[in-house]
Specification:
Order of helices and strands: EHEEHE
Number of domains: 1
Number of helices: 2
Helix content: 25-40%
Distance between the termini: 22 Å
CATH topology: Alpha-Beta Plaits
Structural class: alpha+beta
CATH architecture: 2-Layer Sandwich
CATH class: Alpha Beta
Mean pLDDT: 97
Low-confidence stretches: none
Shape: globular
């Protein structure tokens, strides 16, 4: 199991937090996603054999938020 922290831009409210967490948790291989709204980050625990960073970034971007590199 690996952990990565993504810097997510554009989140400002509880709905944003729910949208990003929900999108990340639906990615196959993600065990847990937790958003820190104040820090503007999403910490994701995932199985490296089942998913990768690009799939997680795409899930967030599909919700209308940007992932900083």
């Amino acid at each position: 199991m690996a952990t990565v922290t993504l810097k997510v831009e554009g989140m400002s409210c509880g709905h944003c937090k729910s949208a990003v967490e929900g999108a990340l948790n639906k990615v196959k291989g993600v065990e847990q996603a937790q958003v820190d709204l104040e820090a503007g980050t999403a910490t994701v625990k995932y199985d490296e054999q089942k998913t990768d960073l690009e799939k997680m970034k795409q899930a967030v971007e599909d919700q209308g938020y940007d992932v900083a590199s």
